[in-house]
Amino acid sequence: MCAQLRRDGVTGLAGGPVARCTVERLMRTLGLRGVRRGQPVITTRSDRQSDRAPDLVDRDFTAQRPNQLWVVDLTYVPTWSGMVFTAFVSDVYSRRIVGWRCAARMPTELPLDALEMALWTREQAGQTTDGRLDGLIHHSDAGSQYTAIRYGDRLAEAGALASIGSIGDSYDNALAESMIGLYKTECVTRDGPLRSVSDLELVTASWAHWFNTSRLHSKLGHVPPVEYEQNYYAHQTAREDPLSGEPSLH
Question: Are residues 195 and 125 in the same domain?
Answer without folding.
Answer: yes
